[in-house]
UniProtKB/TrEMBL annotation:
Domain AMP-binding enzyme C-terminal residue range list: 451-528
InterPro entries xrefs: AMP-bd_C, AMP-bd_C_sf, AMP-binding_CS, AMP-dep_synth/lig_dom, ATP-dep_AMP-bd_enzyme
Protein name listed in UniProt: (2,3-dihydroxybenzoyl)adenylate synthase
Membrane-spanning segments: none
Annotated ranges, domain AMP-dependent synthetase/ligase: 35-400
UniProt source species: Paenalcaligenes hermetiae
Secretion signal span: none
Amino acid sequence: MTSHIPLQQIWPTEFVQKYTQAGYWEGQCFGDLLAQRAQDYADQLAVIGPQEQWSYAQLNQKASLVAAGLQQLGLKQGARVLVQLPNIPEFISVVFGLFRAGMIPIYALPAHRITELAHFADQAPADAYIGVDHFDGFDYVQQAQTLHSRCPQLQHVILVGEAGPFISLEQLMHQGQGITVPDNVSHATDVAFLQISGGSTGLSKLIPRTHNDYIYTLRESARICGVNAQSRFLAALPIAHNFPMSSPGFLGTLYAGGCVVLSSTPEPEACFALIEKHRVSFTSLVPPLLLMWLEYAPHSRYDISSLQTIQVGGAKLIPEVAKRVTPTLGVQLQQVFGMAEGLVNYTRLHDDAYLVTHTQGRPISPDDEIRIVDDNDQPVAPGQAGHLLTRGPYTIRAYHNNPSANARSFTADGFYRTGDIVQLTEQGYLIVQGRANDHINRAGEKISAEEIEDHLLAHPAVFDAAVVSVPDDYLGERSCAFIIPKSDHAKPRALDIKRWIRQRGLADFKVPDQVIFVDKFDITAAGKISRKQLRAQLSQLLQNYH
Ligand code: J2J
């Protein structure tokens, strides 16, 4: 049975001392955290799902059963477990079960498909997969079978619901009955889980976050956002995303003793009904969903007066839309600019209207270091836009198992190259101007142009392909694939191209929204140009065209 040495994220000793002495890292682990909350808030509601409501004591007990069941299967501390669950209460009992057993969840999105899952399972490498039987019309049992046969390292598959040939979560917990899991198996400097990067170049990378650094962000996020034991958080976005997970998200809410209300969809009608029913106090959205909520609100028959704050992040919110939030929804807006790699910025609840509508906030920590540099890594003049580099008590120093990405993404002195172009205001607030690298931010889902191009080039009728971002009124950005067919006779249709991407086992959001066939790339610059320049040229062409 595989036994892994617990993973660690390495900060140089001087930084470990600094962050510990400053009180950021308290030495607490997730396994203990829930046990503590279960003592303090035993009968208070922790999670509300479509059918069930669990108190802290119940959640804690379920997490223990999951932990014991996993150990009974033979999985050891340090085992890596690919978790692909929608917004259901079991998401929370499973991840806390893994934490309690000292195992490491890898958070896949429900939208991920076989190719992405196999990549995560190989890259980790993962020892087990925990999923659901069906969700949103998709058969995850069949997908789990394919994954299991494709990735021999996955020794166990556990599914919520009808597990088919696999073990169900219910059975697993049953097997855990009567078995005591030792407390405190992890160390706070261990990696608690692997988060998935949006992926700017090629395939998604795995982001190792430690107990110490992540719990620090939860504690501070809860404080900054005024989240306490009376708060009720509506999880409308998929909770495997870092934003609804931790800023302050469902984990920050549980950190504070509040209650998490899970919605299986972010659509306004369903969410408004939940807000009314459970007296939800805050939620987090990406800008396109906010637009939907703004359009729906005047026609709504629900009472959402309990809602105090809507946080918006994941992609740029334009001031014109930001200004509509309070008058239309009667709530306070909070902008959040964060990344799964670490750095999170918030506008503060007492900030003036201008800061809230025009900036993306300021960092959580006094020790978040911000550098804004030009293309040669030289600091730009104050107030000018440039590349955002950052280092701090909860920003990673390296991706998991990926030396080439690490060489590209971090400076020699440990700053993370975010890929974002930002401006820093005199008050220390960041304004996001755009992206330096080629990913498409489609309604908050990040798509790597390179990853999609590689799949398009594998199509037998495609000679060359370039994927670019196009501004979109609703999505913020949409994706457009420019394709040079191999021959005019065998020219595929746009539909074939879209189907091809789906058949390659990729998430639906990666399917190009638009496909344009061209005879050649009209390269005006002399000599060979980089793909980056080509994409920029095509993108410009599209904008002029519209
Ligand atoms: C513009 N771009 C933004 C914003 C993220 C909180 C909130 C969001 C994320 C997230 C997160 C943006 N305006 N307000 O993890 O904890 C873009 C930037 C950034 C990238 C990170 C959190 N908020 N972005 O979105 O890892 O380009 O995290 O580098 O998914 O989203 O994406 P991700």
